[in-house]
Design a protein that fits this description.
Radius of gyration: 32 Å
Structural class: alpha/beta
Number of strands: 3
Largest sheet: 3 strands, parallel
Length: 145
């Protein structure tokens, strides 16, 4: 799969790195070809550090960098890619609110009680749940000589 990444900065080159590591071809576009190449070189330097630390092999780095391509025409993809997704303005439908009932028609309903498996009333459990205040150690004053 070919992936076009527009913007080759830190985020764009990171996205290209992830796709390239999975075996996909990542086409990096930037404001200029020189800028895209500069960011690919930074990516290569970052991967070289991983090789030096023993976290990655040089063969894996070479394969990854082979999948990251800097395109000749900046910000104009020439590869066959999927149609870009166009964002459409969302349609918001306003619902008509029903008029409120007059105060005389509103009736209070009793609260629903549920039984729990605890036998301790809440009034007795509350003091036990309160945390005691931690005592602070006295501050040591520093004396200047």
């Amino acid at each position: 799969m070919k992936v076009a990444v527009f913007g080759a900065g830190t985020m764009g080159s990171g996205i290209a790195q992830v796709f390239a590591a999975k075996g996909h071809t990542a086409l990096m576009y930037a404001s200029s070809v020189a800028s895209a190449q500069k960011h690919k070189d930074k990516l290569a330097a970052s991967l070289a550090k991983r090789v030096a630390k023993g976290k990655m092999t040089q063969e894996a780095v070479d394969a990854l960098l082979a999948n990251v391509l800097v395109e000749e025409k900046s910000a104009a993809p020439t590869a066959k890619a999927a149609e870009p997704v166009k964002a459409e303005k969302p349609v918001v439908k306003k619902a008509k609110a029903e008029p409120a009932a007059p105060a005389a028609e509103v009736k209070a309903t009793p609260a629903v009680e549920t039984k729990t498996e605890t036998a301790v009333p809440a009034t007795k459990a509350a003091p036990a749940a309160a945390k005691p205040k931690a005592k602070r150690a006295p501050c040591k004053k520093t004396v200047k000589k």
